[in-house]
């Protein structure tokens, strides 16, 4: 498997589950760092052959070469696109360069890496691309519409890529978690339906077994998302979201 975002807590929780179930080779793609090295050691301790590759979501010009060297080393059964940033809504509204960084990381970088990975999976004739989207992309919320808009774009892109790959042997699964308790969200008020990296990993594994195209975490968010899409805007604005 190839984890794009090799220090992502969700990606690493997923890797741990799949290693226990027989996965043996794991590529961690991310910026070289002590955190990436620790992640590699942690997975290696479970018995996996762990390799790292320098990857920068903000450097799309390098994605084809960087990811190409991974696929050149052997078939990849699973690509998990798990990188992203939350940003700081209040700051980013005042300083648009911050907003651009959020969008370039969560959407532009993901489009580039997703297309490269999708083409490679199609060329080998099999494999799944799992894309971490978010419930925040269902409908813009005042408090995080910059992050939400980037995830909305990513979600639409992933669905379209899945349609483009249909029948090729490769497939895309979109994962839409709600609030996930991670180091990145520490200090933020957690809603009632908040989840954990381990719960998302469990849902990803189950979705892979079922051949799902979309997974909501927790599953109860699926009808909530549908309702939010249909709610009149004048009422939606009054919700404490």
From TrEMBL:
Entry-linked InterPro entries: NAD(P)-bd_dom_sf (IPR036291), Sc_DH/Rdtase_CS (IPR020904), SDR_fam (IPR002347)
Pfam families: adh_short
Coiled-coil spans in chain: none
Family under the similarity heading: Belongs to the short-chain dehydrogenases/reductases (SDR) family.
PROSITE patterns, alphabetized: ADH_SHORT
Alphabetic keyword roster: Oxidoreductase
Organism: Streptomyces mangrovisoli
The protein's name in its UniProt record: Decaprenylphospho-beta-D-erythro-pentofuranosid-2-ulose 2-reductase
SUPFAM superfamilies: NAD(P)-binding Rossmann-fold domains (SSF51735)
GO MF, one annotated term: oxidoreductase activity
